[in-house]
């Protein structure tokens, strides 16, 4: 009896094993709208963050709530609820084992909508991210469904709300990962002490945190409103004149009236709020602004004024110049270019010195946390990093804006990690994850590269056409940024590199191979980077290297897991990187990882992955001080930055 019951459950999470050798390029639905919610004279924004009510479904009966229509009334009428913070992962909040729950959970809360909102405007409900799949009801009516963690989605709820009255929002979230989700996982049914249970497994090395991870907003727009703004920029050869190209799409009935010719008034303001350029759009609602003299957007430590942002004000006007809508966004003016040797920003070669990271912290899991975000950026700047990769999924929009402001370059990664079993269905979802990511992040000056996967199994035959299709699709959406993927298969087996612009490779010398052998790092790194470059004739990045390190464990001579060992591992890599830098095509080094983070339970992980340069509480390990000296030394050598006063501790007069 129990067995057939559980078979039904696993059947719901159908397992796909199709090895598709012939993959067809199918259209992916285009994301619309979803400009970051901002207030203006025509828009209001209201946060629905706070404490929501929460129910976990019975693991063996994940669809019960839908069948029994839990969304039709308050959740507490169907099941006892517990308080749950939003935004946050739900996993580490309770004292029982909610952590390892597989399947659906439910949230609801009430909120008030003012009477004033009923007048001649539209109301939108927007989620920054829910992992992994979300179903949303307003006052018992279904308004939106979205699949894919770490990416925003929204729905117009104008006709679902009670104005001048209380409303209820209900969310069902499903964390199950199968072979056709991004990322992939497996659901199996296995015997346990009580009979049978379902188990979620995955190969990727971070905890599958779930829930309402980022903020929930209600916002208003006028009936006819600015739905999309796309911005690209250019610089004159001598970098004195900047150009901002904008294109706007409008949604609403006024856009369809034949005698109403809508137009855009675009105004560009500098940091001091001074108008530096303005223009009226053409009939396609696009145009160009010229800034002379311009202050280009530069990465941190590459210029004395990094992260310079202008404010672009987009005003939507009717034929009679009536103001219909206003939206403002920050714009950084910069160029990117690349060839077989280099990656350049504003015509200057870039050497990346950065990190692979995670959105991860104690208690909150992957929940948006402004305190953590600001602390992390302070540490990035303290250590002299100029870049990070959003390993292994899109990070919060708030952090993307922060990176723009602080001049931190981002390799923006979609949620495809350890990609395998390349099926047609997976291809569609993978492309959709990139479409959503690029749609969300295309206007950020900090985003300098797209990463289309981390450690995909690119040795398999079907990886060849699969990644060609994924890379071409990405290029069709954005030609202004290069494409990479962090590859771990040996270069002789790889079939994806030919489709990329820049090759990134992950390798753990002296850790997963030749554990403890510090004398087997430098030459291996040099040889492997050369081999990648020889094979593809493209710029090369080492996108991951490192060693698990238990804070406070000291052993001399260095021994695995000790702080001495991590320091030595880094130093041996630095030697290799300096050799490689001389070759001209080696363009960056990224430590794995910025901070310790939680993983699934396994005997290789003591409380999680400990390869952080910082602890999970964001305090430096010994290697952080070494890395800081290197990153600033590189900054001074390559970009003429100055050293912070406290970089070197006074030792003696004899040493300078
Ligand atoms: C990798 C993965 C990363 C892991 C890391 C490790 O290659 O890309 O997700 O956390 O190795 O520490 O094993």
From TrEMBL:
Start and end residues of each Glycoside hydrolase family 2 catalytic domain: 340-632
Annotated ranges, domain Glycosyl hydrolases family 2 sugar binding: 45-222
Keyword set includes Glycoprotein: yes
Recorded superkingdom: Eukaryota
Catalytic activity: a beta-D-glucuronoside + H2O = D-glucuronate + an alcohol
Pfam families: Glyco_hydro_2, Glyco_hydro_2_C, Glyco_hydro_2_N
Uppermost EC category: hydrolase
Main location per the UniProt record: other
GO molecular function, one term: beta-glucuronidase activity
GO BP, sorted A to Z: carbohydrate metabolic process; glucuronoside catabolic process
GO cellular component, as recorded: extracellular space; lysosome
Domain (Glycoside hydrolase family 2 immunoglobulin-like beta-sandwich) ranges: 224-334
SUPFAM superfamilies hit by this protein: (Trans)glycosidases, beta-Galactosidase/glucuronidase domain, Galactose-binding domain-like
Similarity field: Belongs to the glycosyl hydrolase 2 family.
Primary role: Plays an important role in the degradation of dermatan and keratan sulfates.
Binding partners and assembly: Homotetramer.
NCBIfam families assigned to the protein according to its UniProt record, in alphabetical order: PRK10150.1
Protein name as catalogued: Beta-glucuronidase
Gene source species: Drosophila mauritiana (Fruit fly)
Organism ancestry: Eukaryota, Metazoa, Ecdysozoa, Arthropoda, Hexapoda
């Amino acid at each position: 009896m129990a067995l057939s019951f559980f078979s039904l459950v696993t059947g719901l999470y159908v397992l796909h094993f199709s090895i598709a050798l012939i993959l067809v390029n199918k259209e992916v639905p285009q994301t619309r709208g979803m400009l970051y919610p901002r207030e203006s004279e025509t828009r209001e924004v209201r946060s629905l963050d706070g404490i929501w009510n929460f129910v976990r479904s019975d693991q063996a009966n994940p669809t019960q709530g839908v069948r029994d229509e839990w969304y039709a009334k308050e959740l507490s009428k169907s099941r006892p609820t517990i308080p749950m913070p939003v935004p946050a992962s739900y996993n580490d909040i309770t004292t029982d084992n909610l952590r390892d729950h597989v399947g659906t959970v439910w949230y609801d809360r009430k909120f008030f909508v003012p009477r004033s909102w009923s007048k001649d405007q539209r109301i939108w409900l927007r989620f920054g991210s829910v992992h992994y799949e979300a179903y949303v009801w307003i006052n018992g009516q279904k308004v939106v469904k979205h699949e894919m963690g770490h990416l925003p989605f929204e729905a117009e709820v104008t006709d679902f709300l009670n104005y001048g009255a209380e409303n209820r929002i209900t969310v069902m979230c499903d964390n199950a990962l199968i072979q056709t989700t991004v990322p992939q996982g497996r659901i199996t049914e296995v015997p346990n002490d009580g009979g049978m249970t379902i188990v979620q497994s995955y190969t990727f090395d971070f905890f599958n945190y779930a829930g309402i991870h980022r903020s929930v907003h209600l916002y208003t727009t006028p009936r006819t409103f600015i739905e999309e703004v796309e911005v690209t920029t250019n610089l004159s050869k001598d970098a004195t004149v900047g150009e901002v190209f904008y294109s706007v799409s409008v949604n609403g009935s006024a856009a369809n009236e034949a005698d109403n010719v809508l137009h855009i008034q675009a105004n560009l303001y500098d940091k001091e709020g001074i108008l530096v350029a303005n223009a009226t759009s053409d009939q396609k609602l696009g145009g160009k602004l010229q800034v002379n003299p311009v202050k280009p957007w530069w990465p941190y430590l590459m210029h004395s004024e990094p992260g310079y942002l202008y404010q672009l004000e987009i005003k939507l006007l009717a034929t009679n110049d009536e103001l219909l809508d206003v939206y403002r966004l920050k714009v950084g003016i910069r160029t990117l270019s690349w060839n077989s040797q280099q990656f350049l920003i504003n015509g200057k070669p870039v050497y990346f010195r950065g990190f692979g990271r995670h959105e991860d912290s104690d208690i909150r899991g992957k929940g948006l946390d402004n305190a953590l975000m600001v602390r992390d950026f302070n540490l990035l700047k303290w250590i002299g990093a100029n870049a990070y990769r959003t390993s292994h999924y899109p990070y919060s929009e708030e952090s993307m804006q922060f990176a723009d402001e602080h001049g931190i370059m981002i390799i923006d990664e979609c949620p495809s990690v350890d990609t395998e079993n390349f099926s047609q269905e997976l291809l569609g979802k993978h492309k959709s994850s990139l479409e959503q990511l690029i749609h969300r992040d295309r206007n950020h000056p900090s985003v300098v590269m797209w990463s289309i996967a981390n450690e995909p199994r690119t040795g398999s035959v079907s990886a060849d056409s699969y990644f060609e299709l994924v890379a071409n699709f990405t290029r069709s959406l954005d030609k202004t940024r290069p494409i990479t993927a962090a590859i771990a298969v040996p270069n002789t087996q790889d079939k994806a590199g030919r489709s990329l612009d820049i090759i990134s490779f992950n390798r753990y010398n002296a850790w997963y191979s030749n554990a403890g052998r510090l004398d087997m790092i430098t030459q291996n790194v040099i040889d492997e980077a050369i081999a990648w470059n020889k094979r593809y004739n493209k710029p090369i990045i080492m996108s991951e290297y490192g060693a698990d390190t238990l804070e406070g464990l000291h052993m001399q001579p260095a021994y695995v897991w000790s702080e001495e060992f991590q320091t030595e591992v880094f130093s041996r890599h630095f030697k290799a990187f300096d050799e490689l830098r001389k070759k001209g095509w080696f363009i960056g080094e990224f430590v794995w990882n910025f901070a310790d983070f939680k993983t699934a339970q396994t005997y290789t992980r003591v409380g999680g992955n400990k390869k952080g340069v910082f602890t999970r509480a964001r305090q430096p390990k010994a290697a952080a001080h070494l890395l800081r000296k290197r990153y600033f030394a590189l900054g001074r050598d390559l970009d003429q930055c100055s050293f912070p006063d406290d970089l070197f501790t006074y030792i003696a007069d004899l040493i300078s």
